[in-house]
Amino acid sequence: MATALVLNKILAVYVGPMGYASIGQFQNAMAIAIAFASGAINSGVTKVTAENFDNEMRQRSLWRTAGTLTLCASAFLALFIMLFRESLAKFFLNNEALSGVFGWLAVSLVFISLNALLLSILNGKKDVGRYVISNIMGSFLGLAVVGLLTWQYEVYGALVALSVYQAVTFFATLGLCLKTNWFKIGDLFGKIDLKHGRTLAKFAFMALTTSIVAPLSQLFVRTHIGERFGWAHAGYWDAAWRISTIYLTFVTTTLSLYWLPRIAEIRSWAELRREILATYKIVLPFAVLAALIIYLMRDYIVLILFTPEFYPMRSLFSWQMAGDVMKLGSWVLAFIMVGKGMTIEFVLTETLAAVIFSLLTLLFTEYFGFRAVAMAHFYTYLVYWILVYTVTISTPDRRQRLFRSVS
Fold it and tell me: pTM, whole model, 2 decimals?
């Protein structure tokens, strides 16, 4: 959070609102590329690694399958990006002159994907210390690389830095893994186990849905804002979204690190119910308090984290913060769908959320102006929370289905 806040200020000073919009577009493009490059299997790796905590042979077989699939997928996609970088720059950034940043992304993609895989392994092994150290190292490296290149080359430098710093982090994460007594470099590549492949494919379908429909809806919303209100306003919305991302990461990282592996271990509804209630007792008060503080301090936040040029974003804070509370509340239950392999339910709810957000943005901005995009955020996650509750734990039959795969 600390490095993200500092980096936020650097970007605000050197790229401005319109530059923020370009960075948001490129980050959405990266999210889609990384999802395809990694095969979107990392949630599955975490779950299956946690489930087989007492069977190292099955864990290594899983890692070799995942590593080989990741290497093949990321190498193929890197070649595709390199060949079509001009078209991608035109589509995502509306500027072929920025095609070089997609070239840097292509070069980095294999290492970015393998770094994400190693982190998912550490998560599944519950090696909290190394997982946290790797993320902290990545944060400081991101601050240094993005800050330096943005200072020197402004928007172009920021885009290049976003492409490469995660690739460098891979070598630090690999070094941490090699210091354990349960991991060797040979565990990362080898024969593909078809059973593990089928299991990972189910999670890949879920993760690809999130990694594609969410960035696509953001691309759609950002483009709509830019065309209707001007690209500076798209930057204001991106800045507000970034504030949400920074403080929500505090909770979502914890959910990914603790909640997802814990769900995979739970074998009864009574135990899961206790965990849900305990998690909500922490998550919801934090979400409400953080949202209230950010709303009350919005003028100071805009001035400290951004520049006076970003003041029009203040109109978004009330609805954006309220929507973040809905978002965190819904995510606690959404993780159950991932942890229990509820593929169809997860895909449908994620897709519906993206469609609802896009449609509500179109509808609300017609009547309420620019601030309506934050209103759409709130109502989207209110509906999403109801949806995930309905498909996961709303009835005894649905609760029972969560444990049919384990006896």
Answer: 0.77
